[in-house]
Please model this.
Amino acid sequence: LILCITLSILMIFQTVNGRWMYDFWVHSAVVHELAYNPISPRHAQLSLNAPHSDYSPYSLGIALVSRVVGLDPITALSIAGIVNLFLFLFGLRLFVSLLFPENGEAVAFYALLFTLLLWGKDAWQYSGFLNLKVLGLVLPYSSTFAVALVLITLSVYIALLRNGNQLLYIPIFVAIVIVILSHPLSFILLSIGLVSITLG
Model:
């Protein structure tokens, strides 16, 4: 709990200071265009009638919230980053507690600690590699949202296998579609997880 609170405070400060870099500006352009014209958006960076590779359900969701609430894209993405952090922490804790019900709290603590720190000193600054050096910068990205959704989906699948509630296939299917459309690389993780849990 202390690690999660500390991490949350650090990430909130990162979000509030607004020192974004890398792909953040591409994502904010995408949110801006989708908020301005959600039905038939143009290319987010070029003045072309063409699609953009970052258009996804995640970006559209943020854009619609931005449009309805009246937030600028940068603020909307920043807030989404904090939401993604809490979704990731919740998903990791839920997934680990279902896999290791007796020692869930300890395993979740070490899983989070090792995920953030054991990449080595030259950890890749890429959104698919959640490490402490890059986490604050990639929280608003669709990749972080997708990883959180993968953990939650795997947890729902474990619950489905344990209690046999067939209705749980509906949120699993919806989550699979959202993950594929939001961040296809995370779908590889989701697929491996679903197959592993099934075989296990």
